[in-house]
Design a protein that fits this description.
With 116 residues, the chain is mostly beta strands. The protein is 15% helix and 39% strand. The protein has three helices and seven strands, in the order αββββαβββα. The strands form two sheets. Strands 1-2-3-5-6 form a five-stranded mixed β-sheet. Strands 4-7 form a two-stranded antiparallel ribbon. A hairpin with a 7-residue loop joins strand 1 and strand 2. The two termini are 20 Å apart.
Length: 116
Amino acid sequence: MRWSRDATSATNRTLERASWHDARFGSGTPVEIKSTMLEHSDGQPGNFKVYRAYHDRLRRADGWYCFVVYRPHGRSGCTVLKDRMCKASRLPLLRWHGGGDHRETQQAKIVITDIF
């Protein structure tokens, strides 16, 4: 995903790739960036996927999520429609289930309206 007026520059974040977070605030606090399309090609609304092991680690580090909703256009572009910061400890109730096997953990799906 390409970043435009995005959330990375707006609040002094530096991109940093790790298994459990994507960026850090200037203070060193970890930030996990979660993005979803507003609506998939089959008409289903987008949702954010959170993985339990990474979420637990982000919570212990007093980290944050940056949630981004976008609309794709063309072959390689997208427009950021909404973005919101949320402390990992303040997420809505998560219902953990299988599906995160490729990451050896459980996952939870968060609908867009639970964040925005």
